Amino acid sequence: MTSNVAAISISDDSDDRKARLASAGVILKGGRVPMEPFICEGGPVTIGDAEIGPWNAIGRFSYINSGFIRKSVEIGRYCSIGRSVTIGTGTHDIAAISTSPVLSPASNIVKYADPIRKKSVVIGHDVWIGDHAMILTGVTVGTGAVIAAGAIVTKDVEPYAIVGGNYAKPIGKKARFPQHLCDALIDSKWWELPLQVLRNSPYGSPTDFLEWLAVNSQGVKRDPFFSRVHRI
User: Fold this and answer.
1) Between β-strands 38-40 and 63-69, what pairing exists: parallel, antiparallel or unpaired?
2) Per residue, what are the HEC states of 110-143?
3) Is 125 a catalytic residue?
4) Cis, peptide link before residue 167, omega less than 30° from 0
5) Which of 92, 132, 180, 230 is labelled catalytic?
6) What's phi and psi for 206, nearest 5 deg?
7) For 80-89, what is each residue's pLDDT tens digit?
8) CA–centroid distance for 52 within its chain
9) 3-state SS of 134-162?
10) What's this model's pTM, rounded to 2 decimal places?
11) Cβ(221)–Cβ(194) under 8 Å?
12) Where are the domains of the chain?
């Protein structure tokens, strides 16, 4: 007796998923494939040897060298994530008879940082995360922030703040720029501008860039964050 059910090759499924990811602009540098669903904007996102769990969303021009992104993490555009970085950690009930999540309802496993968007970790745009950093579940990292190598981040990080240590706290000059420049850069939403426009701007100086943008922003078509969504 013969079966009419066609055999399905796991490797064929993997190849098909890699092809679909590639068509959405996801560049896989390592051997691992993000778990389903993976959410992106249809532009270049580079993933090295990183384990990517389900329901993670990564914006255009961001990359991660290696590490682990647990679940329901949102990462903005132009983020630079180093090696062996962990984003999102499991939560366990230490008041119960057992800390094992096997005994917990599924709704209690992930603690959301953003109850509206249902994200366990929210990372803004242009965030630089150094090697071996760990960002715990429930944390929001503001746009422009810098997380030093080896930092363990347990609390929210303000936009353009520079933090490091265990547990992470402001270091050095505390922020990349004076507060008025930080506010102006966030208000500008420069990450919505076309890449070529940014490359032609005086991006090396925030002051020069903002002055340039005030003169040259008219007629430039913007692309709001996740205005186009690819769920793969």
Assistant:
1) unpaired
2) CCCCECCCCECEEECCCCEECCCCEECCCCEECC
3) no
4) yes
5) 92
6) -55, -40
7) 999 999 999 8
8) 11
9) EECCCCEECCCCEECCCCEECCCECCCEE
10) 0.90
11) yes
12) 10-178
55: left (phi over 0), alpha (psi -120 to 50) or beta: left
The owner of tokens 């098909």 is 16
pLDDT at 4: 43
pLDDT band at 110 (very low <50, low <70, confident <90, very high): low
Extract the tokens encoding 83: 């090696």
Sheet with strand 121-123: strands edge to edge: 140-141, 121-123, 73-75, 56-58, 38-40, 230-231
List, for residues 120-179, the tens digit of each pLDDT value.
999 999 999 999 999 999 999 999 999 999 999 999 999 999 999 999 999 987 899 999
Q: Are 152 and 166 in contact (CB under 8 A)?
A: yes
Task: State the Cα–Cα distance between residues 142 and 127, nearest whole angstrom.
Answer: 8
In the block, residue with structure tokens 């746009």: 143
Give the CATH superfamily of 10-178. Hexapeptide repeat proteins (2.160.10.10)
3-state secondary structure of 181: helix
The answer on pLDDT for 64 being more than 80 is yes
Alpha carbon distance 136, 70 (integer Å):
10
